[in-house]
UniProtKB/TrEMBL annotation, chain A:
Source organism: Thalassospira tepidiphila MCCC 1A03514
Protein name listed in UniProt: ATP-binding protein
Residues spanning the membrane: none
Main location: membrane
An example Gene Ontology molecular-function term: ATP hydrolysis activity
Keyword ATP-binding: yes
From TrEMBL, chain B:
Any one annotated GO CC term: ATP-binding cassette (ABC) transporter complex
Protein known as: ABC transporter permease
Cellular compartment(s): Cell inner membrane; Cell membrane
Topological relation to the membrane, as annotated: Multi-pass membrane protein
Molecular function terms from GO: transmembrane transporter activity
Organism, as annotated: Thalassospira tepidiphila MCCC 1A03514
Keywords: Amino-acid transport, Cell membrane, Membrane, Transmembrane, Transmembrane helix, Transport
Primary location: membrane
UniProt-listed NCBIfam families: HEQRo_perm_3TM (TIGR01726)
Amino acid sequence: MSPILTISGLHKSFGKVEVLKGIDLTMQQGDVVSLIGSSGSGKTTLLRCVNLLEDFEQGSIELAGQSIGYKQEGGQRRRLSEREIARQRAMTGMAFQQFNLFPHMTAIRNVMLGLIKTKKMPKDEARAIAEKWLERVGMGQRRDHYPGQLSGGQQQRVAIARAIAMNPQIMLFDEVTSALDPELVAEVLAVVRDLANEGMTMLLVTHEMRFARDVSSKVVFMHQGRIHEEGAPEQIFGAPKTERLQGFLANSEF
Amino acid sequence: MNFSLFLTELWNARLSLLSGLGDTILISVASVILGSVLGVFVGLAMTYGAKWLRFVVRLYIDFLRGTPVFVLILACFYILSVVGLDLTAFQAGVLALTLFCSSHVGEIVRGALSAIPQGQTEAAKSVGLTFGQTFVYVLLPQALRQILPTWVNTATEIVKASTLLSIIGVVELLLATQQVISRTYLSLEFYLFAGFVYFLLNFVIEQAGRAVERRISIP
Ligand SMILES: Nc1ncnc2c1ncn2[C@@H]1O[C@H](COP(=O)(O)OP(=O)(O)OP(=O)(O)O)[C@@H](O)[C@H]1O
Ligand SMILES: [Mg+2]
C-alpha cells in the first residue's frame, strides 16, 4: 500500500534560524502518529508545514499522491498558485490549541462555512453533514450556540467537527487540550480517541503522554528540529533508547 | 425673546431652512458614504499592502488627520480651481469632507482588522478558504462589528463639520439660518433653533447606530 503522507528532507527556517532540519516521516492510511518533544523542538511548525500555513524552503510533502505546496518545473521549485494551495489546505484538517472558532457564527455555521465555500455544497447538504458531525462530537444539542456561549472543551469539539466535516485525508491536532481546564480535557480526548479507533489518519502533537501511548500506532520524539527517536509506543515509552528521550520522559507527567 | 414673532418668522423661512437642512443631509450622507468606501480601501492598503504602499497611505492618513477640516475645505475650493479642476462649492466641500472621512475610516478599519487574532485567518485558510473568502466571511463581519460605534461617531463629526461649508458659500443649514437672521435680526432664537436641529440629527444617527449594534452583537 502506498503511503498517504510522505515527508522527505523537510527544512524550514524563520529568517536565519533553522527550525526544521531535515524531517522524514511516512504515514499509512489509518496511522495515528504522535509528535512529542520539548518546547521549541518544531512540532507545531511541522504540522503547519503540512497544512501549508508555513512555507518551507527545502524538501517535499506528498499527500495522497499530490505534491503539497510546490511543484518541480524544469528543474525549478515553484510555489503553487494561491487557489491550488487553498484547495490543498482543505485536504488536511487542522485543530488548533486555541480552537479558533469564528465567534460571529453559530456552531453549525462554523462547520458549514468550508463545506459551502470550499466544497461548493448546497446549503441543505452542508447542514446535514454539519449536523452529523456535531452529533458525533456530542455537540448536536448546542449547534445553534455561538462560541462565546460554549465552554473551552465544547468549543474544541466544534472545532474538530469543523475540520473533519471537510473529509480530509489526514487530521492534524496541535495540543488540542493544552488550553483547557483539567476537567475538560477528557471530553476532547475521548473525541480524538473515537476518531482514531474509526481509522482516521492523524498526526498529533500532544503533551498527554498516557494518551499518546494509548492511541498511537507510532510515536515520534523531536529534538531541536530533528526526529531524534521514533517507534511503537511500547518501545518509546517502555524502552527509550536515547538519553535525550529518557530525560524528556523522566520530566514528563504520566 | 418674542416667541410668537419667532414662530411667525420660522414659518416664513421654512422653505429656505428646509432646503438648508436638505443640503446638510445630502452633504453628510454623500461624504460619509464616499469617505467610507474610500476609507475601507485605505484601511485594506494599510493592513495588507506592500511596504511602499503602506508608507504612502500612512502619509495620506497623517496629512489629512493633521490638517484642520476648515483648511481642507478652503484648499479643495481654492487650490483645485487653480490647477484647473473647476468644482462647485458644493462639490469641493463634499470632496473635502470625503477625504477627511476616509482618513478616519481608514484608521478605524486598519485598527479593527489588526485586532482580529491571526488564528481566525489560519482557521479559515485551513478549511480551504481563499484570501478573498476569508476576508468577506470571516474578517469583515468581525471588523464591522468593532468599527460600528466609532464609525457612527465619525458620521456625527461629519454632520458637524458640514457647517464649515458655509464659509465657501454652500447654503446648508447654518448659512440658511444666518441668512434668515440677517433678515429678521432674531439671532439668538434662530441660532438656538439651528443648534437644536443639529443635535436632533446626531441624536437620530446615534440611536440608529445603537439599534444596529444591538441587532448584530455576538452573544
Ligand atoms: N512565526 C515564527 N517566527 C519566528 N520563529 C518562530 C515562529 N514560529 C515558531 N518559531 C520558532 O521555531 C521554533 C519551533 O517552534 P514550534 O512552535 O514549532 O515548537 P513546538 O515544538 O511546537 O513547541 P511547543 O511545545 O512550545 O508548542 C521555536 O524556537 C520558535 O521560537
Ligand atoms: Mg507547539
